[in-house]
Amino acid sequence: MLRSLIQELAGRGKVVLFSSHELDTVERICSRVVILHRGKLVADDTIERLRTLMELPTLEGIFSQLAVEQDTDAMARQIADLIHA
User: Fold this and answer.
1) What's the structural domain count of the chain?
2) Percent residues over pLDDT 70 in the chain
3) What pTM does this model have?
């Protein structure tokens, strides 16, 4: 329902501000994204242009390059090592 509403409003020329960390959803319904990191603007463009400029296939990959400071894979391994099976 929400996706349909956003697409309907956009189709009518309305600007819709949609804030989410669900980047796969953002990719499906947004034509333009703004990425903030520590309160500073690090990207403001279409998803397609960001994919081309960053040479990355997904918005999640782009977000990781621009706004994630730690190695999430290494962190996940460290947490998994702490969990006793």
Assistant:
1) 1
2) 99
3) 0.69
